[in-house]
Write a structure and sequence with these properties.
Blueprint (H helix, E strand, L loop, with lengths): L9 H8 L4 E3 L23 E10 L5 E9 L6 E2 L6 E4 L10 E2 L2 E11 L8 E7 L2 E7 L21 E3 L6 E2 L6 E7 L5 E8 L9 H14 L30 E9 L4 E3 L3 E4 L9 E9 L3 E10 L13 E10 L1
Parallel strand pairs: 12-19
Antiparallel strand pairs: 1-9, 2-3, 3-7, 4-6, 5-8, 8-9, 10-11, 10-13, 13-17, 14-16, 14-18, 15-17, 18-19
Length: 327
């Protein structure tokens, strides 16, 4: 299937993705003008636009609709509870969308699972921020079909992660809560995951031979295939401890998705350096501290070198949602 053209920058990408959005003022208030596509952003007081990233089949065959948002505020983060101001209908208002909204463009942060026979049915996400309401309707629109697990042009695949050292692997969009943790107000909760990534292309010759040799060495137990990056201990040969000099080929980003109050991450961005070795699962560890009791959802977004939003092509990154029950 042809790959849709998605290399659109900033607001253009969102406007293209969110066909059918509208913006209006609350009842009884003066109508708010929708900003122009290239209109400068504001520090505060701006709208938030829901964004359709695309849809495609999950590993189990279910269809996933992947969504993000565009917060036109440069500095203002907002909390919008599930309800009249943050709803997805029909069947809502809660379809797993965020309630904490960071500034700027946030790509592919949650997915809605729909049945194979969903057909032309539509869902609508409505957000009210700073008195401005925007909404989009989305469906299984053929031009927005995406292969979440492999880029058809260059063969790139999203990182593979595990939330337990010997646990199951995950890749691609989030499909519900992947892990549940517990914590106490004011005390750091440890967040750990293991990540690996296949190189986009492996050429025949010396590089392919080197990969095969590393696979054989790992199988014989001669290589330590774990690095603890969040605490700056990085493994190569067993016992080695160095600081990575090469650019990261995987980046783990922790963000708040939902919760009654603020979350502080000791290290919200963790770079990992695999040197294109698909046999390595690198351990990334940080902590999250919660300021109030309640139920939180935090998000781990794991990017490869294609970056946020896959460089505008919606492949390839992996997202996991973690619930934390804080007392």
């Amino acid at each position: 299937m042809a790959w849709p053209i998605r290399r659109l920058a900033g607001p253009l990408a969102v406007i293209a993705a969110v066909v059918g959005w509208t913006i209006a003022a609350p009842r009884g208030a003066q109508l708010t003008r929708a900003p122009l596509v290239l209109e400068p952003l504001g520090a505060t007081g701006e709208a938030i636009y829901p964004a359709l990233e695309g849809w495609g089949p999950a590993k189990n065959g279910d269809n996933l609709i992947l969504l993000g948002y565009y917060n036109r505020n440069k500095t203002q983060e907002l909390d919008i509870p599930i309800g009249p101001d943050n709803r997805i209908d029909p069947g809502g208002p809660d379809h797993g969308q965020p309630t904490h909204f960071y500034a700027g463009r946030q790509h592919g942060i949650f997915a809605i699972k729909v049945p194979k026979d969903f057909g032309t049915q539509k869902l609508t996400w409505t957000l009210t921020a700073n008195g401005q309401t925007s909404s989009i309707s989305f469906w299984l629109n053929p031009p927005y079909w995406v292969n979440f697990y492999k880029h058809p042009a260059n063969g790139n695949e999203p990182p593979i992660i595990k939330l337990l050292r010997d646990g199951p692997t995950m890749t691609g969009p989030p499909a519900g809560i992947a892990q549940t943790l517990s914590g106490t107000v004011g005390k750091p909760v440890t967040l750990t995951l293991w990540a690996s990534d296949m190189p986009t292309q492996v050429n025949e010759g010396e590089e392919a031979l080197a990969v095969r040799n590393r696979v054989s060495a790992a199988a014989r137990g001669n290589q330590d295939a774990v690095a603890i990056i969040g605490t700056q201990v990085i493994g190569g040969a067993r016992g080695a401890a160095t600081t990575p000099a090469a650019p990261p080929d995987i980046t783990v980003n922790w963000r708040q998705h939902r919760g009654p109050d603020d979350v502080t991450f000791a290290q919200s961005r963790i770079p990992l350096v695999t040197k294109r070795d698909p046999t390595l699962y690198l351990e990334a560890t940080t902590t999250a501290t919660f300021t109030a009791p309640g139920e939180y959802v935090i998000r781990a977004q794991i990017n490869d070198t294609s970056g946020d939003g896959g460089g505008g092509e919606q492949c390839c990154w992996t997202t996991a949602l973690v619930k934390v029950e804080v007392r």
